[in-house]
Amino acid sequence: MTKRVPLFIDGEFVQSQSEKFLPVTNPATQEVLCEVPFATQSEMEAAYASAKAAFLTWKETPISERARVMMRYQALLKEHHDEIAEILSSETGKTFEDAKGDLWRGIEVVEHAANIPSMMMGETVENVAREIDTYSYTQPLGVCAGITPFNFPAMIPLWMYPMAIAAGNTFILKPSEQDPLTPTRLAELFVEAGAPKGVLQVIHGGKEQVDFLLHHPDIKAISFVGSVPVGQYIYKTGTANMKRVQSFAGAKNHMVVMPDAAKQQVINNIAGASVGAAGQRCMAISVAVLVGEAREWKHEIKEALQKARPGAWNDPGASYGPVISPQAKERICNLIQQGVDEGAEILLDGRDVVVDGYPDGNWVGPTLFAGVTPEMSIYKDEIFGPVLCLVEVDTLDEAIELINNSPYGNGTSMFTASGAAARKFQHNIEVGQVGINIPIPVPLPFFSFTGWKGSFYGDQHAYGKQAVRFYTETKTITARWFNEDTKSGPNFSINLK
Ligand code: NAD
User: Fold this and answer.
1) PROSITE patterns given for it (predicted)?
2) How far is the CA of 128 from the centre of ligand 1 (A)?
């Protein structure tokens, strides 16, 4: 019988009583790895009840003890690094190196969460009025929840619950139903790290399970990462139910190439950033904007992309793996066809790529379009595949205008040798994460992941100080202690006296 992924409720890994299960497949072979349950109402209620009960003791646990759980957790994640990466590769198809990167970027957040005491420090001012002091504390919210996408099954769950839990909350995670084995392994190691019963729950499923979280009257905050339509739905529904919501959504990231940039570096960086992870990164470069004479580099870009090839997770020569599902492949191929139909020049077409030994994989070869214009669907829609669009402009100002007109604002980068041009770009560009000669500028966890515009709905972003703000309330106390010299009569004004 096919293995079934357990739910993680009240400190136990339990088999769901659900009647609805979905197969989880290896995208390189279509082998069914396991089945994922769609948690029942009573299982979700049990998860909430356990998280609520655990909150009452967890929030009273000294902050340094909470930090120590994170220290042990990061050590365990490192110890099991390769084993987790192998699980991750099996269900996402990512190359082993890329799977390790997915986990590593999550471990960095756990390391950061271990620094929670200093991040939760409040502020103090003595003598705000005569012999009156004001000081503030940050306190956890209660039960928080997170809903995560398929494309980073280690990193994105680790963006969320380590920060929330270190801050004193308890957390219900609803991972992607397409790759639930990695987050399950992450939860097992969290227990091994000493996380008390109930602080983390993992429920599986889809919309119905997400709706339970969004409508629950006592779940205080929702963290979401995924596509634009779902991200908008989460933000609208969560806030309509009076919750805090941070909702990270889709993207279309541009790389601006100036003619004075180091050409070979540009070419290498474009190839890795556009087709790496089969283009299934929210920070992937999907549009390269060639400015002025950089237009002439088209053919070298084509040669570099042509050398990239998809392959199995353990093929050391593979540049990237398959896309997540046959449906994803079909969607990508349809968008490629639309690009052709709308008049873009297809320089490389990856639709018929073959990977020896893996006839059933969801392979898409590197695909390159030139002559792309902003009206085309390949420019407007997030393709989420190994497809790069080349757009040509005459000046940096035109490039900036193009990007600022995009509804997305997750990431962008610019390659140049000119500090003045880079300064102009970083200052004027309406995108939340900017790389200067860096193709995928994902900030390390002591900063925050700061997507803008249609790529993010909310105000406090993931990890860093902003995550601490998102997962806590500030309580500000104004205090006076009377002594024999205190002179105070009735005060009928609002002033402190
Ligand atoms: P998705 O939106 O299909 O799914 C994300 C999560 O939402 C999953 O857990 C899924 O079960 C749930 N979900 C799906 N449909 C739902 C519905 N109708 N109602 C409620 N919940 C629903 O996204 P995906 O395909 O798993 O991930 C890829 C997307 O995620 C891309 O658009 C990518 O750009 C985006 N992404 C964004 C960031 C970021 O930081 N901005 C990071 C990674 C991925």
Assistant:
1) ALDEHYDE_DEHYDR_CYS
2) 47
